[in-house]
Amino acid sequence: MRIAISYPPIINKHGQKAMVSQNRNVQFFKKPTYLLPVIHAQAATSVRNLGHTVLWDDGNAQLKSYKDWLNDLVSWKPDIIVFESTTPVMKFYWSTSRQIKEILPTTTIIMTGYHSMRKPEETLEKSPIDVVLRSNNIDFVLKRLVEHMDGNPFWRMSCNIEGLTFRISDAEVRSTGNFVQVEPLDDTPLIDRNLVQWKNYAYENGNFLQTPGTYATSVIRDCMFGKCTFCRYNGPDLTFSMMSVHRSLDEYESLINEYGVKEIFDDSGVWYRGREAREFARGIIERGLHERNCYFGLNTRFEYLDEETIKLMAKANFRFVLLGFEAADDETLQRLNKGYQMEHVERCLTWMTKYGLHPHLTIMVGYHWQTKEQLELTVNTVRDLMFRGLARTLQVTICTPLDFTPYHQECINTGVLLTDDYDDHDMSKLIVKTPLPHEEYYQAIRSMYAISFHPRFLLRQVQFLFKFRKRDWQFLFTYGIRALRRVRQHVFNLTRNSER
Amino acid sequence: MISNRRLSSNTYCLRTERPNVVIRAGQCFSVGTRDLGINREYSMYSAANDEFIDFLIREIGDGIVSPRLGTCKPGDLVEIGGPYGDFCLPETRIADDVHVFIATGTGIAPFHSFVMSYPGLHYTLFHGVRHEDEMYDRNDYAKESYTVAVSDPADDRSGIRITETLRTTALDPRAFYYLCGNRLMITDAISILRDKGIPGGSIYTETFF
Questions:
Q1: Where in chain B is the domain with CATH 3.40.50.80?
Q2: Alpha-carbon gap, residue B15 to B5, rounded angstroms
Q3: If you write DSSP's letter for every residue of A244-270 in order, what string do you get?
Q4: With an 8 Å Cβ cutoff, are A303 and B64 in contact?
Q5: Number of Cα atoms under 13 Å in the Cβ half of residue A340
Q6: Which of A13, A19, A140 is nearest to A84 (CA)?
Q7: Is A182 in contact with B187 (Cβ distance < 8 A)?
Q8: Which of A184, A268, A447, B30 could serve as A220's disulfide partner, Cβ 3.0–4.6 Å?
């Protein structure tokens, strides 16, 4: 069969492209970061390994216009098209699938992603999409589905693969139930870099200090904590699974030796901790990969890595560490089920800075309960951490309820959601009732991004130069210029709905 | 910390004061000591309404948090954050529905909490352990409800894994299945449950390691 894994270019009225960001939330940017959709890349590799012809069709990363993307796709005549959904682009996908079905009526369109997996009937009702895949383990389920469909024109009648909702006829829809997704990650293939045209993602990515960079095949699927209320990796039907350390090390070795990669980021919700983290870092050192001019990066939590592990990771040439710093006040942390206390933050960042890692904070504002005091505490704490050199970079987002997470459901249940238009969930504006005028949250965003231009922050970066670490020099002179460009863009995007 | 009760050569039950919050059986807490700066998640072992919280903790050989917590003495300060999670029995199901609990090792903790919280619960518990001394607080479970599989018995008997026990046991397709323990057991057990016709919507998992 001919299978296209497709990401259409989605361009808004400001001429900005939709891009997926950390945690795969859609935001629109004029100059996007191109992130490799890791699980879909594994899915593409998996079905290709079954002997099917696969088109890796990322119209964004391939810099196509919508028209060119559509023309190219329909002229390729796929038997199956796979899309990935999230709340703010649902209406776009419903409309695009109608357009495709008019041209290719026999093509099977499969929708994946967190929004449709939570509301599968909605997508089947509002579009001609054939199948909704109700699992984040797209690689595993798609492989089973494709095997079942291959050469079987009556697959809709006989399919009992768990985790699917699909159309049997115009009037009839069938569900095969919830998919319980504990799949051994060692059973799914590592990403075929050539298949997914890895170089399209190797340069325009703010997480890379050196290029070409790439995303590793994630070692953890979903999240080993999995309880934060705003996050998609949360729900009684989700649980984490982990890839073996040696397999991930093999991939890193291959990426460095065969592809000449200079920075590798693992975008697992939370990377290894404890024994596995130490085993991985030791493995990097034993294989000599720490001396190959390649930095490594990860997502983690403040309370997950101890000093000994951080020291070992620094020796293994880890650099970029992305940490969710959702707020500085205890009430918010508690309501988000975030599970760290402020003393964890200070201690963890102190260790990371001591050993030369570059912590990056991802901050959110605009919770429906967030008071002036809570907001100011967050802004002041972030400023303090940045001025003291305990965090090197930051990114601020508006907390937007997405994809029927517990936070989204809470906003619906308590009546604080100001819109039911999915297009409004693009993280560009506050869409919940808040105790303060929305303008104050936008101002907080501006204040936090302004930290990067403050003389105290810049002076601290200059002081780091006297540690004589290459990464600190790169950070100030190479990355700094890129970062300033991105900061301007972030400020525009996140505050363009501001009155000022 | 209130007490530290040694249950086997590498497992102990840590008892702490209870924070003044609503707690549901099956939830977990992040637990650590002040000097470490890191913590780990442990399911509550005690009943939801007890005046204390128990955690069933296995010491990991080259771990950091579990050996440190094991050295704590009554009166020492431990950090606990939470409760977190939804690995809980819905109120509507507690009285009438049949529950099957499947655990390895200290993964029995949330099921102990269920059993102690809900007297009269209809349940069957399958517990996979390596050695006999890991049948923690065996007498807290109804004799007819508890099935153990010892993989490495002390005597000459051959060992059996919990997954083998599941394969050879008739399972009720109408029951709700709760699994807690190591990833490999959970992966294998889910395959077995699927093969036996248990729908995915009736299976709930909590994986911590």
A1: 91-207
A2: 8
A3: -HHHHHHHHHHHHHHH--SEEEE--SS
A4: no
A5: 22
A6: A19
A7: yes
A8: A268
DSSP category for residue A22: G
- Whether the CB of A260 is below 8 Å from some CB of chain B: the reply is no
A132: left (phi over 0), alpha (psi -120 to 50) or beta: beta
The rounded distance, in Å, linking the Cα atoms of B179 and B126 is 10
DSSP state of A294: -
Give the tens place of pLDDT for each residue, A415-449: 999 999 999 998 889 999 999 999 999 999 999 99
Residue in chain B nearest A350 by alpha carbon? B37
Domains and CATH numbers, chain A: 2-175 (3.40.50), 185-495 (3.80.30.20)
- Does B63 reach chain A within 8 Å, measured CB to CB? yes
Does the domain spanning B91-207 belong to CATH 3.30.420.100?
Answer: no
Cα gap A187→A94, rounded to integer Å:
33
C-alpha A427/C-alpha B74 separation (Å) is 48
Beta-sheet pairing, A53-58 with A263-266: unpaired
Query: Rounded to a whole number, what is the distance in angstroms from the first to the last CA of chain B?
Result: 24
User: How many Å apart are CA A318 and CA A355, to the nearest integer?
Assistant: 10
DSSP label at A476? I
Instruction: Using a CB–CB cutoff of 8 Å, tell me whether A163 touches chain B.
Output: yes
Per-residue confidence at A492, pLDDT binned at 50, 70, 90? low
Residue A21 has a pLDDT of 53
Q: What is the DSSP string of A81-95?
A: EEEEE-GGGHHHHHH
Phi, psi of A150 (to 5 degrees): -60, 115
Distance from the A303 Cα atom to the nearest Cα atom in chain B, whole angstroms? 4
CATH class of B3-84: mainly beta
Structure token digits, residue A150: 């291959």
Do A439 and A498 meet the contact criterion of CB atoms below 8 Å apart?
yes
User: Could you count the other beta carbons within 10 Å of the beta carbon of residue A433?
Assistant: 14
Structure tokens belonging to residue A58? 């990322």
Asked if A236 and B62 come within 8 Å (Cβ–Cβ), the reply is no
The least confident of A245-259, B72-86, B105-119 is B72-86
Helix A372-387 vs helix A455-465: crossing angle, to nearest 10: 30
pLDDT tens digit sequence for B12-36 = 999 999 999 999 999 999 899 988 8
Q: Mutation test of the interface with chain B: which of A181, A239, A330, A409, choosing the one with the most B Cβ atoms within 10 A?
A: A239
From the list A269, A258, A271, the residue with the least C-alpha distance to A316 is A271
Chain B from 128 to 187: CB within 8 A of any A CB: 183-184, 186-187
Residue B183: list chain A partners with CB under 8 A.
182, 184, 241-242
A113 forms bridges with which residues in the sheet? A85
Provide the mean pLDDT of chain A: 90
**Count of alpha carbons within 13 Å of A271, Cβ hemisphere only?**
30
Name the token pair of B172: 């009720």
Nearest-Cα distance to chain B for A474, in Å, is 30
A308 contact residues in B (CB cutoff 8 A)? 64
pLDDT digits (tens, 9 = 90+) for A23-38: 567 788 877 788 899 9
* A295 bridge partner residues: A263
Residues forming CATH 2.40.30.10 domain(s) in chain B: 3-84
Q: Are A379 and A443 in contact (CB under 8 A)?
A: no
Distance CA B139, CA B150 (A): 17
Q: How far apart are CA A408 and CA A400, in angstroms?
A: 8
Rg (CA), chain A: 22
Q: Which residues contact B88 (CB under 8 A, 6 or more apart)?
A: B24, B25, B26, B27
